[in-house]
Design a protein that fits this description.
The complex is a heterodimer. Chain A is α+β, with helices and mostly antiparallel strands. Chain A contains five helices and five strands; from the N terminus they run E-E-H-H-E-E-H-H-E-H. Chain A has helices at about 30-35, 35-50, 65-70, 75-90, 100-105; strands at about 5, 15, 55-60, 60-65, 95-100. In chain A, strands 2-1-5 form a three-stranded mixed beta sheet. Chain A has a two-stranded antiparallel ribbon with strand order 3-4. In chain A, strand 1 and strand 2 (about 15) form a beta hairpin. In chain A, helix 2 (about 35-50) runs antiparallel to helix 4 (about 75-90). Chain B has one domain (about 15-165). Helices cover about 35% and strands about 30% of the residues of chain B. Chain B has helices at about 15-30, 35-45, 75-90, 100-110, 155-165; strands spanning about 55-60, 65-70, 110-120, 120-130, 135-140, 145-155. The chains are: A alpha+beta, B alpha+beta. Chains A and B meet through strand 3 and strand 4 of A and strand 4, strand 5, strand 6 and helix 5 of B.
């Protein structure tokens, strides 16, 4: 049975679900994905960007999400997403499929 | 999320007291907001919006945790929008019971690991709980106990996280 690699963001998580936010290493259990240096680099950049939108004790709220910055960064994020999917497809030996939940989120912006 | 109290840290002791209060609260009403914890949050000047509280609790380590109604980016609305499918499919939790279930996870679950992360000068935390044999990840901004997100992890993924982060 093919494994499913989900692409999704959350605070301190993503783009590959799940990953180590501090290094960008995916934690999918699929070695060709988890150890790929190109994927790790892109994954780190995407997660870092997304989590940076969250602010603590800001704008008179316990937690504030910078939607304006997310919209501003949309082209850059979608470019990174495209690169990530391209690389995943390049290394895919048929053992996994991709479920992209990031594109629908960004289409709404 | 909205106007409220600023600053402070939510990690305090008093778990036994909290458990007793929780039982009292359960007997008298279905509210998961513990008035004593709310008072403690006010005393510690933790920023929160009282009318938006879904629950307040402390985990077995004494960490104060509170969930607000939130929006699409954080809080209950965010969790329901983004993770309900996982709660239902992975852990067989009814969609309508997600907030109550999360409350039980944090209150009664065992903490597998806790770690803080600093991104661009901003501190966040991640805590993995095991409850009734299943794993749940909590993420929060800052250290005040505000829940940004919570979601189930399957055994395989959770064990990878534990191997990597448990000290």
């Amino acid at each position: 049975m093919r494994e499913k690699i989900k692409l999704m963001f959350d605070y301190l998580q993503g783009a590959i679900w799940t990953s180590d936010i501090e290094t960008g290493e995916p934690l999918t259990g699929i070695d060709i994905v988890d150890k790929d240096a190109i994927i790790i680099k892109i994954n780190y950049e995407m997660a870092d960007m997304y989590s940076s939108y969250y602010e603590f004790d800001s704008h008179d709220e316990a937690c504030w999400f910078n939607k304006e910055k997310q919209i501003e960064d949309k082209p850059k994020m979608l470019e990174l997403l495209s690169k990530l999917k391209t690389r995943l497809n390049e290394i895919n030996d048929g053992s996994f499929e991709i479920e992209d939940l990031i594109t629908p989120e960004y289409e709404k912006l | 999320m909205g106007a409220g109290y600023k600053g402070g840290f939510g990690h305090t002791n008093g778990e036994k007291t909290h458990q007793k209060n929780l039982e009292t609260t359960k007997k008298s009403s279905t509210s998961l907001v513990d008035k004593n914890i709310v008072s403690e949050m006010e005393r510690n000047k933790i920023k929160f919006t009282k009318e938006d509280l879904i629950f307040t609790t402390k985990d077995k380590t004494g960490q104060l945790i509170f969930l607000e109604k939130g929006n699409s980016s954080a809080g209950l609305k965010h969790i329901e929008q983004r993770h309900t499918k996982d709660f239902v499919e992975k852990h067989k939790i009814q969609a309508s019971q997600v907030s109550k279930h999360i409350h039980s996870v944090f209150t009664q679950g065992d903490l597998e690991y806790s770690r803080t992360t600093v991104k661009k000068g901003k501190e966040g935390f991640e805590r993995l709980y095991k409850y009734k044999g299943k794993y749940y990840l909590l993420s929060g901004v800052g250290t005040n106990g505000f829940v940004v997100s919570a979601y189930p992890l399957d055994d395989k993924t959770a064990k990878q996280h534990i191997r990597r982060y448990k000290k």
